[in-house]
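Re-run with default settings, no changes from the original entry. Doing this only to confirm the output is reproducible before filing.
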Amino acid sequence: MLLRMTLLRGDRGWSQKTLASHLGCQREEVSYWETGARQPTPARLAQIAALLGCDETQLLDPVEPPPLIVVELGNERVTMTAQPMGDPIRPKLPLVEISPVDGGMAS
């Protein structure tokens, strides 16, 4: 799985279709690489790295998803990611989701 490719692509605001266009391939091929269904050839990996401004080994380095923090506040559950401040690949803003607890309505 090339999760780092997904993160770097997202940092540029590129969709899978945009990256595929730059690479001269189909969007589905990018999806296969990102999910780990297929691996890019060494030549394609070099091309991806050049477009995303990194080297091939960085693309292949595993990236652990950030841990989730879940807090219940009254009848709402707040879920957010905990992101290390020192990682230059991940955005610094927490991703937050608010959902009702026990199927109740959030106010």
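Confidence is low (pLDDT under 50) at residues 85-91. Strands lie at 68-73, 76-81, 96-100.
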